[in-house]
Specification:
Four copies of one chain form a homotetramer. The first copy, chain A, is of the alpha/beta class. The first copy, chain A, is 33% helix and 27% strand. The first copy, chain A, is built from eight helices and 13 strands. In chain A, a hairpin with a 2-residue loop joins strand 12 and strand 13. Chain A is globular and about 60 Å long.
């Protein structure tokens, strides 16, 4: 059963939900799922409506055209798309492949619905893993000297591949600020700590030294400020005194896998709305 | 800021959300919070709308009167009430007072908003605890011989006290089936296991014998079937081989406190809707 | 750094820990890690000692020979082995491959240390997944008519493969009672519910119908009683009213992966001791 | 059944566990519970032994005298005490009483075993709550001008009360560095964030602004560095976009209650050993 997704955020006003649901009803749309949130302190309205496509009496382009003037009046950020159109996601990885392997499984088994135009790495480590899935693997080394050039080429490839999203699946190079700025809310990173704890390098080592009793991972949009982008999802697990730093790395991997897979899932289904540095996540 | 709460459930149909939000908008109502859920498999619609009272251009009785014909047309179960009207909750307890003490604190500190017309117990254990809060304490012993009579009197007291809700806060007598039937979705119980595991007596003992690695507690509506009513909230905690049965009782107490306090909170704010044996819980 | 593992359980008595640690010290053994637990109610003692192999002044066979009379005196169940000897684990799967894929990754990346002599399935679904890892894949169909024969052959293969352990990684056939009895504490199953809730078939469907607020998975030893063997590990996750049965299956998969991977990890490192229907798990 | 507790930490060496368990066995001591941990990277040994008092063939003073030379040889930090001797704990609170009320219940119900010589507050808010428990309540206002004096008097009272431990149960004044230094590992604080996230003031406000998806609380020893002392216990809970800052405060209270109650429990039973800025916690 096909679904049409309407996502929008705009300044709050009286009667907003009525207007939007009237709009859908006026086109015969049967609502499968509705999420709505009003941030009272900011006076901002967020919504996601999943409409049964076959009940709509107009096609996708027509409904977008009809919604445009209403959206303009509401000063809304919005999108309408078919849930069946798979987003194109470029995966980036370095030498730790657990998140990559996890995403490949969820992709291949159909748990997550997206296309993978290519996997890019600054190492050759996972070429086989990727190619045996029938996916293109690009090795793009990054050195301090070549970094600027390498990321320019990366940007070019992402565009060439018509990527809707880039996932840094334990990609251990810091993406340059200007590149993040060019792909706003379109680069997802998994950070191996429970942010804002342990921003930056070696979070597990620092967690071990600090003697914390819980460690975690954070799935967030990459922005110009390192590890400070909008958080989509976090996961934690308990640790004890007998866990060495190596144990923390091991236990943390499961947090990373889960936080990234869930964060990606929400993004792919248009369940994440961003306002400033906060996310509204209409979970499923 | 005063709030008016509209809660309803009814058969699903196209345009339902539009009609309800139009209704609110037509009376000038500004929506503070909206929850909506459609159970696709059952074809049933559930909603809770929190409306800023001062924006409404009619009073509570008038809006109820206006909504009545619409509700009838929609074949809806519904209620409209002022969020500031505190529900009247009778607390029942036996010899384990941790849930009672927890609820009394949350009540006195204002974390939970309700009135306590009285506390009833089949033991004298907590008379002091209750009376020093300035609350009436009724000792109503229950023996196998007097049980039927005792619960008839209980029912009478509940009605006399104009109770909106009865909370079995570790009340260790089984409430008779017919009494449960007379107070549908108005008796909340905390069961000391993770239902449906360990229905019935001595769940911690049985959990220990079974060697489970997690124990829990379940907050549910009491129905005619013991421990089988609609579940509102559950909580679990990890246990290990070194935890004795006494440890399980201790650890379980925190699960019980949390599950009951949260379940009660949701109920008090009209956030729980029941359909068959399942609950829709619009959490806050 | 090589490690020698001593695991034992026996009736408790005064001075037991002293005798065992004296035994290790007498052979020069430096203790890396010691776990000890006394079940006071049963009067039973459990221990696991990890000894730095290079500090021992005798070899593995000699230390076993020396320990034998002491163990006999203590009436102990015991084992001494090199931690570097990888257990041989046969994996069994049916049509749901998420646990299999997860274990293959943890095996290949070295997170879990074991050998896989073969993977057996009653379906062809995962032949490619397995063979591309360079592992033998055996398709052994099971029908009601052939079931007895099939499991006789299974048993033969397990023995032929010198399996130390069999893992039912979402293998959807019930292993016959007599076969479980022949492989005591050597068959690990992942059950897709939070046992003892939802023993038997279709646990997610029943969890959905019951309206529970948490679902889970249980890693346990298979015994003659279905889903009633000693529990090694459990994992749970929250669900809400908006999660369909399909959502429960999806969310449950992550519980299954985690509970099985952890349970297997503990078993492989001799961290699980069984007494009756309970496990002592010295986690790492 | 009375218990004698031996707690020690010392440099690791071969045969250490044998020597200590021999010591206990030599005095006829039956071990109820043994915990041992060797920090391999630091070469440090930690142990806690619970011995059945009635099986010891000498009294407490005698066993301490006998252990002294061994401890000296091992260069150990150590203590031997009767588990039945209740530690004396001064509770400190400001205007938020949820942790205080929680501890008072656990104390009165016997869940936690300690004596309360007095409760001290910089406000009068909880005088009644404390005095109706029959406990002395001291109001000690703290202003910027009087702070130094006030804490000198606090120190005097703590000593006068023969306090073994001071618990800052949401006491909102920063204890001066020198006072922390005088009471090493004898002042327990509950910080209302998941440290090291949000060190300092207003952690919930900052958590809300950062848009984290989990909040928490940390129970730790107060040291000369604000919020940087050894962590004993932490607790977290999930939050979502619809949770306001006020919701975070509410949800956080349950984290604070649990983390503090558990941390205190471990400390009271000599289950916490400190080395540098890390704790070894032998949980029960």
């Amino acid at each position: 059963m096909a679904t049409t997704l309407l996502k929008l955020s705009c300044p709050d006003r009286v009667g907003l939900l009525a207007r939007i649901s009237n709009f859908v009803a006026a086109h015969g749309g049967n609502l499968e799922e509705v999420h709505q949130f009003t941030d009272q302190s900011e006076g901002w309205f967020f919504a996601r409506l999943a409409v049964e496509t076959q009940t709509l009496n107009v096609d996708l382009e027509a409904i977008k055209a009809t919604f445009r003037p209403l959206a303009a009046e509401l000063e809304a950020d919005w999108s309408i798309r078919s849930a069946e159109t798979k987003p194109r996601v470029v995966l980036m990885v370095s030498k730790l492949g657990h998140c990559l392997a996890d995403l490949l499984w969820r992709w291949r088994s159909g748990e997550l619905s997206f296309d993978i135009p290519c996997v890019i790495s600054n190492h050759e480590t996972y070429r086989d893993l990727v190619e045996r899935e029938g996916l293109p693997f690009f090795h793009m080394p990054v050195t301090p000297e070549t970094k600027a050039d390498a990321f320019d080429r990366m940007d070019a490839i992402w565009r060439e591949m018509r990527a809707d999203l880039v996932v840094l699946a334990r990609y251990m190079q810091v993406v340059p600020m200007d590149l993040c700025a060019k792909w706003p809310n379109r680069i997802i990173n998994i950070h191996h700590s429970f942010l804002p704890s342990f921003v930056g390098a070696n979070p597990y080592q620092r967690a071990h030294q600090r003697g914390v009793k819980l460690i975690g991972a954070t799935c967030h949009y990459a922005t110009e400020s390192l590890d400070e982008g909008p958080i989509i999802e976090q996961e934690v697990t308990r640790v004890e005194h007998f866990h060495s730093e190596a144990d923390l790395l091991r236990l943390g991997r499961d947090c990373e896998r889960l936080a990234l897979a869930r964060g990606l899932r929400y993004h792919l289904a248009d369940r994440v709305l961003v306002r400033g540095n906060r996310t509204i996540v209409f979970r499923d």
